[in-house]
Amino acid sequence: MCVKMSQRSKFESRFAENIIEVAAVTGASGIGAGKAGGDKLWNASIDLIAWKNLHDIEPIKKEELRLEWLVTDEEWKQSRDILKENEIARLMVRRAENSMMLIKVLETNYKDNALEMILQESMKPVFYNDEVLGQLELVKSVKLFEKTVTWAGEGLLYLDWNEDENKMKSSLETAYALFKKQNEWNVKIRKYAAEELVELANEWLQDNDEAEIAVITKEMFIDFMELSSISVYPDGDFEIFFSDGDMFWGHSIIVDGNINGELTSAEIAG
Predict the structure, then answer these.
(1) Count of Cβ atoms closer than 10 Å to residue 99 Cβ
(2) What whole-number distance in Å separates Cα of residue 243 and Cα of residue 80?
(3) Into how many domains does the chain fold?
(4) Same structural domain, 150 and 53
(5) Which of 47, 84, 264, 270 is deepest in the core (most CB within 10 A)?
(6) Per-residue pLDDT tens for 109-166?
């Protein structure tokens, strides 16, 4: 059996054999796709937040499911726009416990009053009000609360949405600690990034024929860094993203650490 057939057979075995017709509400994120090592086909998907069987009297199911399908490289180019975020679509699917397999898109912009009410409710803004940091707004496509902040420069603060509010409060405690001693943290984090990455920055510099400097010192490295965002997590963990001042040709510099004082990594990405 060829690799593609094997992958497709394994994928389809996850779903029930019978095909049903449903109307479904897509979530705030659009279509994405991934491919595991050794796979030949892309696993394309989009999130659903509610659906109903069009040939069944059962009530609407408000639940988060993933609608999935396999595509070749060429089919993936054609699949990117078959469904949009925040819309109602009529679909032929095969069911699994926590997902559906797409067979065919029958209709987009499908009209259904009950599903339309769910869609409109899902699109309303969601806020988290914190007595210290103020109001954060949920970015629904990535399930992150976001706020513009000033922390040794202006950037964005990100906090994971979580059903367990205690975890969100733990993340906020991480933010409080970073803001309480922001100057100390700023100096420490930038110095750490320079020590870890200045050698790599100079390697990249040698490949830049248009460079106006011969060497990047640690002091220059620190000055080139500019705050982009801060992501805070429970138990004191954080990630701070900086723009690189073109030292790495536009990549981000990411420093990971914990408010216990430990900085664990500095790397480039993006």
Answers:
(1) 16
(2) 30
(3) 2
(4) no
(5) 47
(6) 999 999 999 999 999 999 999 999 999 999 999 999 999 999 988 999 999 998 888 9
Question: pLDDT per residue over 196-233, tens digit each?
Answer: 999 999 999 987 767 778 899 999 999 999 999 999 99
Please choose, from the candidates 267, 263, 239, the residue with its C-alpha nearest in 3D space to the C-alpha of residue 155: 239
Q: CA-CA distance, 89 to 103, in Å (whole number)? A: 13
What percent of the chain is predicted at pLDDT more than 70? Answer: 98
User: Tokens representing 171?
Assistant: 């993340």
Q: Residue 23: count other Cβ atoms within 10 Å of its Cβ.
A: 21
Per the CB < 8 A criterion, the answer to whether 146 and 156 are in contact is yes
Q: What is the CA radius of gyration of the chain?
A: 23
Are residues 139 and 45 part of one domain? no
The set of long-range contacts for 135-144, using a CB threshold of 8 Å and a minimum separation of 24, is 140/27, 140/28, 140/29, 141/28, 141/29, 141/30, 141/85, 142/29, 144/231
End-to-end, the C-alpha distance of the chain in Å comes to: 37
Q: What 8-state DSSP symbol labels residue 185?
A: H
Domain end residue (candidates: 120, 143, 162): 120
Q: Which domain holds residue 50?
A: 3-120
Residue ranges of alpha helices (H) inside 55-206 are 73-79, 113-122, 165-180, 182-206
The better pLDDT of the pair 265, 209 is held by 265
pLDDT grade for 3, boundaries at 50, 70 and 90: low
CB-CB neighbours of 213 under 10 Å: 10
